[in-house]
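name: query_chain
kind: protein
chains: 1
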Amino acid sequence: MEDHGRRASFRCSGMGGSSGVLRVRGGGAFSGSGDRGARSVPAPGRAGGPPDAVPHLHAPACSPLPRVLGSGVRRPTSRAPHRAPRIPYLKTPVTEDPWGSPDDEVVWEEALPLLRRHPRLGPVVERVGPVRLPPPDPEPFRALSRAIVFQQLAGKAASTIWGRVVDAMEGTVTPAQVGAAPDEVLRAAGLSRGKLAALRDLAARTSAPRTSAPRTSAEGGLDLAGLAALPDAEVMARLTEVRGIGPWTARMHLIFELRRPDVWPVLDLVVRAGWATIHRMPAPPDARSLEPLADPLRPWRSAVAWYCWRVADTRMEMDFE
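structure:
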C-alpha cells in the first residue's frame, strides 16, 4: 500500500504522435458515491501513474470551442463561434472540456500576476483562467478514507467500491464506524486486505488521543482537524505514518483539502507530462529533474501543478520550435 510518489485519477496514456508534437491525453474523471456523491479527487494508481495515485481535478468549464477529433476540427454548433485567444505555440485549442462544476471554487487568485508573466505558462493561464477546485470535504477522515480506497484502481471500479463501503457503514464514514464494521462486511464491499488494514490503522490513529509519545503506532493518535494549523512538512510527516498513505496521497490532501498553495507533486506522472507539454520538451522530466524547475514560481507551485493537470487532461498539443 505504500506509494512512491492525484484526491484520487489520471491516466497518462500516450506519448508520441506525429513528428515534432508531444501529445498528452488525460484520464477519466473520478466520481465518488455514497454520502458525498460525485467528487473530483486524484484517483490513486491509475495506469501510467505512481502506485499511490494520480488526481483528476475539476476545472472551469469553457465556452464552446472547436472539437478536435483526430487531426480534423469541427466547428461548434453555436451561432457565434467562440474564438480563443491565440497562443503562438498552441497547435490546437482545448478539446471538449470535461472539467468544471457549479460548486467549484476559485482559489489562489493572488498567483495569477506571477504565472501570467511566465513565458510558457502565461498563455495557458490566459487560455484556461484561474484555478478552480471542488470544495474541501468537511470531514477529513472521510476524505482520506476515500483516497485510500481509490488507490491503484480505475475511477469507475473505485467509485463502486467506495459506494459499497459507505453503504456498509450506513452512509457515515467515521473512525468509530470503520472500527466497528466487521472485516467480512468491508471485504465483501470490495476492499483488499491491504486497504482494509490501512482504513483500520487510520481509524485507530484518529480515534486515539494525541500524546507526546513517538508516533510509531496507532497509540500516538492523529488529530486530522489540527493538521490545518501545521506547516506542510509536518502534515506530510504525520499523514505518511498511517499505513497506506504515502507522499502522493499526503500532497493531494495538502492541495485539495487544506488548500496549501505551494505543494509541488513531482512524483505525479501527469504533472510531469503537462509540464513537458507546456515547455515543449521532447519527453517528461523525471521527478528529480522537475523538482527545481518550478522554483521561480514559488509560492504558487500547487497552482502550477493544477495547470499541468489541466493541459494534460484537455489534450493540448503544442508545436516544438
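note: The first strand starts at residue 21 and ends at 22.
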